[in-house]
Design brief:
The protein is an alpha+beta fold. It is built from four helices and 17 strands. The N and C termini lie close together (about 10 Å). The structure holds the ligand N[C@@H](CCC[C@H](N)C(=O)O)C(=O)O.
């Protein structure tokens, strides 16, 4: 069996994209996805994304994603920008008369709407953030409480953390110097900490200015990545909730910047950033 794939990245957060529009189940199982993500023995990627048929009449397509460890997250911000470009490319190749620039994508985190804008960047309506402990989920505070600037112990040290769900869980810590964090060591300890029953993504953030945040991430199921879209959104929310930043800011990641805005009107988060095709091939 041969399967066509495309490799895309959003600020170096890279994915193998599979056209899965002819069937409801992913064409590859999790074990195969893990092998393909391997950077030495496979294609190399942070995850595999499947473009599936619409789940209902309110959406155009469905996105499913496997992390490089084979687990399935609810959402992926950089991934959904890549998916939008991939779908636009597929529709253009099929000669669709009026190529779409906006897609309503069904995800495990609800409907997410990416839009390809004039300069080729993708602006995504990421929905509203969830803050209650049971929604993250975390047992750091009571189920109906919010974990904002709460203390937790990791590696014999107290960290002040804020927890935000963008459909997937994030634990954000503001630090003086983000470069000084030993992410390789500390990241997995947060990810697997017993207060996060579904594990967590963890972001370390330095406030450069009220509209500029520098962030490094350890992703659940993928480890250190060059960028995390949902993580950048969660970071801005944590910054606003703790009075550290404005509602619109640039989040600088190792792979480049993302523009994030938390609307004071509808409470939704908007993320704008690039997505590029690197190469295509056949498995
Ligand atoms: N890189 C992503 C997030 C991918 C999912 C994450 N690893 C998880 O398990 O929640 C992004 O850009 O948002």
């Amino acid at each position: 069996m041969s399967i066509e794939f495309s490799k895309y990245h959003g600020l170096g957060n890279d994915f193998i994209l599979i056209d899965n529009r002819d069937r409801d189940e992913p064409r590859l199982d999790r074990d195969r996805a893990v092998k393909l993500c391997d950077r030495h023995f496979g294609i190399g990627a942070d995850g595999v994304i499947f473009a599936l048929p619409a789940a209902n009449s309110e959406t155009d397509y469905t996105m499913r994603i496997f992390n490089s460890d084979g687990s399935e997250p609810e959402m992926c911000g950089n991934g959904i920008r890549c998916l939008a470009r991939f779908l636009a490319d597929l529709e253009a190749a099929r000669g669709r008369e009026t190529p779409r620039s906006t897609f309503r994508i069904h995800t495990l985190a609800g409907t997410i709407v990416p839009q390809i804008v004039a300069d080729g960047q993708v602006r995504v309506d990421m929905g509203v953030p969830h803050l209650l402990a049971r929604e993250i989920p975390t047992t750091l505070v009571d189920a109906e409480e919010k974990a904002i600037d709460r203390s937790m112990e990791v590696a014999d040290r107290q960290w002040s953390v804020t927890c935000v769900s963008m459909g997937n869980p994030h634990c954000i810590t503001f630090v003086e110097d983000v470069a000084a964090i030993d992410l390789e060591k500390i990241g997995p300890l947060f990810e697997h900490h017993p207060v996060f029953p579904q594990r967590t993504n963890v972001e370390f953030v330095e406030v450069v200015a009220r509209d500029r945040l520098k962030m490094r991430v350890w992703e659940r199921g993928a480890g250190i990545t060059l960028a995390c879209g949902t993580g950048a959104c969660a970071t801005l929310v944590a910054g606003v909730l703790t009075g550290r930043c404005d509602r619109a800011a640039t989040v600088e990641l190792p792979g480049g910047p993302l523009a994030i805005e938390w609307s004071g009107g509808d409470g939704r988060i908007y993320m704008t950033g690039p997505a590029e095709c690197v190469f295509t091939g056949q498995i």
